[in-house]
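Researcher: Following up on the earlier apo prediction. This time include the ligand. It's adenosine-5'-triphosphate, with the SMILES given after the sequence.
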Amino acid sequence: MLEIRNLNVSIGDKPILKGIDLHVKPGEIHAIMGPNGSGKSTLAQVLAGREGYTVTEGEILFENKNLLELAPELRAREGIFLAFQYPVEIPGVANIYLLKAAINARRKHQGLPELDAMDFLELTKEKLRLVGMDEALLYRPVNEGFSGGEKKRNEILQMALLEPKLALLDETDSGLDIDALKTVSEGVNALKNPDRAIILITHYQRLLDYIHPDRVHVLANGRIIRSGGPELALTLEERGYGWLETAEGIPA
Amino acid sequence: MNTAAHELDTLINRDYEYGFESDIDSDMAPKGLSEETIRFISERKQEPGFLLEWRLKAYRHWLTLKSPNWSSVHYPPINFQDIIYYSAPKLRDNAPKSLEEIDPELLRTYDKLGIPLKEQELLAGVAVDAVFDSVSVATTFKDRLAREGIVFCSFSEAARLHPELVKQYMGSVVSYMDNFYAALNSAVFSDGTFCYIPPGVKCPMELSTYFRINAKNSGQFERTLIIADKGASVSYLEGCTAPMRDENQLHAAVVELIALEDAQIRYSTVQNWYPGDKDGKGGIFNFVTKRGDCRGSRSRISWTQVETGSAITWKYPSVILRGDDSVGEFYSVALTNNCQQADTGTKMLHIGRNTRSTIVSKGISAGRGQNAYRGLVKVLKGAENARNYSQCDSLLLGNRCAAHTFPYIEVKNPTAKVEHEATTSRIGEDQLFYCMQRGLSAEDAVSMIVNGFCREVFKKLPMEFAVEAQKLLGVSLEGSIG
Ligand SMILES: Nc1ncnc2c1ncn2[C@@H]1O[C@H](COP(=O)(O)OP(=O)(O)OP(=O)(O)O)[C@@H](O)[C@H]1O
Ligand SMILES: [Mg+2]
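Model: Understood. Below is the ligand-bound prediction.
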């Protein structure tokens, strides 16, 4: 589904990603861990098509198409979803309006008719329950005045509605209390299916207690220095990244 | 390549949709301004003598004035002798009895503007006093309104049929000595709308007039007078579009609102005049004097406006809060694009006790647009416990445009509370990206964000106008209520 080959990315003159290789198959869940500033969000943003990053080398294939040629809104409509680490506020725009515009943009792209107001509302309420979000938040301006946890839930709500093929979750677990972590994880697990791939960016093993990854990768200083099974996350939790950097030293 | 910015540019540079000129024989006054011109106008309109006298006084006063020189807007000098001050569409039998009698070309013009009178009559329940050039040619729903004792007609008709009301109220809010353009308007005003709501009557429908500038070189000098008597209330809508042309057109209207005890007037404007081409050539100059007088206790006047057209807009809808406990409101969205200049704002003059005013101004600048907000809040000595809240937000699209905010506050009573808040923001790249990551095109994302920015003001508009307003800002229908 997703193939990243020797991806090198700079911001201005500063290289941030230095040769990333990553292969994700449908149905798989990958976790990306790594110290602050190692390039995790950068990778997610480049996948989603944000401006301001220069790909100096390498390629990204999504369902065998050259992803780097696609405009961000087309990537979204093709089924790539990014749950932002810092969701932005959009004053005056009702949350539900953005949701409706988003879902209909996707449906139009798929050649499906737009959802009418009733069907849309019904679907939205079902997904609200899934992520344990208060209905009142639908009618408030997008993310404005939402608590940290509410913002994260809102991202997952959008994901649940848009049913992406590839979901990128950038630290969706940070800022959640224990109960919220559980409901959000359940929401993500409910979306797990053989056609969908999920990439989780996280700092905490905790999340992986709820969502079980197939692969765990450690990103440090713009490189994936180690990949492994779920047990890798446990070792990291115990020993920190220092262990990898000193013991291995060399990129994997 | 920066796709978002590119799409933003296309959106901004969309051509004016309503640019066309219709071709109707006009009965015109000779070019130029003189006492003869004024007598010609007054005679054509079969006006009572007091009105001609008033026009002449205004004209003589105007002769002593100099064309104003506003600091923040720039425009070439206007040659007042090069303007046609009166032109009326030729009608077959003088006044038409029904829509069928109206010049088909005129009806087609309205069609092109998307305001077919018949449909409006049937569907919208809006009484339309349509002003084409300078004479009202069609008025609907008159009977329904007449049953309530409401007078809603053209200014000339009011001068003939209700001279006592016109005499009593005309010029009582905006005197002909008020300013250069008000004096000019008072001398040569061609027509306009008159509305009187008798005591205790709530007007059963939104009243509306569509203005349209037509006929080459005919400056438009509309005059509107709305009176809500004790305990009466009315909501009035004003909207305009103009055909594309090459010369700048002057528009200098005067609007006077009078609210007596416990009366309410809501005046909404969606204004979409031709702003000129990309270099600002050919747009409308809009210099308007709009003022409301809360004359009675507990009266309320609200101005809501959405300004997207005009090459130059200079306009300060104001409220004089004379009655105790009276309320003045001003909600405004002004969009300037390309070379448009807008200098708008409001004045709230607190005279009575416990008077309250609210100002919400949203300025959007795109292209090389210049947007200035100027607000004056003046609390006089006797205005115990006066309150004002002002909020001025500016949104910038791109980096060649600008927004300026000039709040003036004068408080002569120590019990007054005046609050002012101002913000300026640029449409954030992160907001755009967020929306696009959810599948929206850059164009839709911009519309949505701009629409959200204006929401507080749109909420104040009557439904159908809110929809129109959003269309004007390039926004889909659903956004309004969502
Ligand atoms: N616009 C920018 N200009 C310059 N440097 C940037 C910019 N954006 C990110 N960087 C740098 O790129 C590096 C990687 O940042 P990134 O946000 O991808 O890290 P991260 O792994 O997500 O970190 P965290 O765990 O703290 O979220 C950091 O050193 C950061 O300072
Ligand atoms: Mg990050």
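Model: Chain A has nine helices and twelve strands.
Researcher: Noted. I'll compare it with the apo version next.
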